[in-house]
Amino acid sequence: MAQPASRNRQQAVRFDLCIPFCIAIMVVAVPDVQQMAGEAGEASSGSSDVHVAAEGSLDTVSATSANLLGATEEGVEAPNPADAPANKATHAAGRESDKPDTAGSILFLLFVLLLLLGIKGIDFMDFPASVLRSGVLGTFAAAAVIAIAFRQVERRADDPVFHMEYLHSLPIVVTMITSFFIGCFVISLVLVPELAEYAMGAPLGSGGYYILAIGAASIVVTPLGGRVIDRIGPKPVLLIGFSVGIAGLLYLALVAVAAPSLPTLLLGLFIVGAGMGFAMGAPTDYMILENTDPRDSTQAIATITLVRQIGTSLAPAILTGLIAASPGLVGYQHMLLAVVAFNICALVTMLFYRSPDKASE
């Protein structure tokens, strides 16, 4: 009989494989692309909190698989490429293929692994000197070489893991960067139980109950965010989400952790959950779909998921390094401030986003 951890991993793989394809089916089957993207995001975002908290690093592999397996799904009638709007990114003609991009997948995983190894070698109490150490610098240099090789492979691949043509569209680049930092934000959930147990002196294993405060706020806020997106677009929703998340994280770092108590901790987590509910799922799905052709919907969703999972894979190494670098609750304060920095980066990035309709005016 499979162990509980094994069952969780299997469920996580199936979860990540299904989301991009299911959202894509909804998009190509329904005329109102943006509205359905918002509804799909509402459905997926609430469950993503629990999923990410259980499975962080595995998401990179499963998101890559989603891109590969969902890229050329038969049975979905693709629109005529000639009908695609001029301001939407489309794939080069004749590149569709059933042949998986094995080389690209391997290079991508090597790239992420090397980045992880490099980050793990950094001493955050002596950041400049540790980065310049030969082992760390060499690891990052190797990651850069792999990235160059990955770019070359993807440009020649019939069905690439990552579509390089997306990098020529500023709205899509903004969406990718934002999605990366959302991944960094969301994966901080995995450290909430440890933070709660340490701050409150709670028994080992009881810290997971504190995540309920984040989940409760997300459940309330996420459907509201979806409705707002349908009316005014994703940019205001994300800006609100990041702003609320920053406020909640600062409250946790400067108030709840500085003087721990159950009410202050739960209040801070609830505020963070509200910000997370606005930021997760629907907004970035909406953004990538309104900037790509409907026939590429599966690949577009899988690509944005893949970028987000890079954040969920790399951020824990940074956050745990900050916790380990300082004693006691100071380390957790530094961790929370790092998540604040992730949200600030995402918020600033979103200021450069313009939807295709507004850009054409």
Question: What do you see in this structure?
Answer:
- The chain has 361 residues and is mostly helical.
- The chain has 2 domains: 4-74 and 164-354, MFS general substrate transporter like domains (Growth Hormone, Chain: A, Up-down Bundle), CATH 1.20.1250.20; 102-157.
- The protein is built from 15 helices and no strands.
- The chain has helices at 4-29, 33-54, 58-70, 102-120, 127-131, 134-156, 170-186, 192-200, 211-232, 234-256, 262-279, 282-290, 297-325, 328-350, 356-359.
- Helix 1 runs antiparallel to helix 2 and helix 1 (4-29) packs antiparallel against helix 13.
- The longest helix has 29 residues, at 297-325.
- Residues 1-85 have low confidence and may be disordered.
What's the quick description here?
This protein is mostly helical and 361 residues long. Helix content is 73%, strand content 0%.
What are the salient characteristics of this protein?
mainly alpha, 0% strand, 15 helices, 361 residues, Growth Hormone, Chain: A, 2 domains, globular, disordered N terminus
Write the layout of secondary structure elements.
Layout (H helix, E strand, L loop, with lengths): L3 H26 L3 H22 L3 H13 L31 H19 L6 H5 L2 H23 L13 H17 L5 H9 L10 H22 L1 H23 L5 H18 L2 H9 L6 H29 L2 H23 L5 H4 L2
